Amino acid sequence: MCLAPELIGDHDGNQASLLREFAHVEDRNFWFAYRRRLIIEALSRWFPQIESFLDLSCGAGKFLDDFRTCYPAATLVAADRCVDALREVRREYGFSCLQMDPMHLPFADAFDVIGAFDVLQHAASDGIVLDQLRKACRQGGGIVVTVPHQRTRRLRGNAPRAPEARYTLPALIRKVNAAGFTVVHSQTFCTLALPLMTLSMSKQRTRPFPMAVGDHRRRGPILNDMFGGLC
Q1: φ, ψ for residue 160, nearest 5 deg
Q2: Where are the domains of the chain?
Q3: How is domain 5-230 classified at the CATH fold level?
Q4: Which listed site, 43, 107, 187, 226, has its alpha carbon 20 to 30 Å from 9?
């Protein structure tokens, strides 16, 4: 179902031809795998009884697939701005899919937990997105938010087509608190791997943005495992 048809065709660089290749990368790349593990561990600790979960930017759907293993009885909804991504997610995993704008969520008291993974930095107003998340959460529920840290700015070779925010942890906590949430857990990750990641990506600085999916594959299994061990 398309709830924000005006956004169709404006997918922040997502391309239908790359979605399946990205799904392969998301399944194996150390960064995605470690992030999924951290999120699910945090959810298990703070929200052990989840009956409904919305993934606000589901991408290739791998997180929801892992989440379903831990919460098999939960109602899961995959959302994204990109219709092509949602088609692939529905085909691969069978999730209920909604195309929508994170700044205009058509829900009130609807979900126990909402995941906003790398969503805020793309929004014209991260404050509006957080307010929408607060409205869509049930009483006693919560959100899980991931954003790029300020220090990862050095990993970008060229500027993206649209500005992307970077965050410090204190600044993000202030924004989340201002939206009416209470932060119960926060952390950064991959900090030990950051210097090596910077070095390995230095040759990519002259490549056009967004980085090709194949760049993640060219890192190779040995380097991928090395970075994973440093997380």
Answers
A1: -70, 170
A2: 5-230
A3: Rossmann fold (3.40.50)
A4: 107
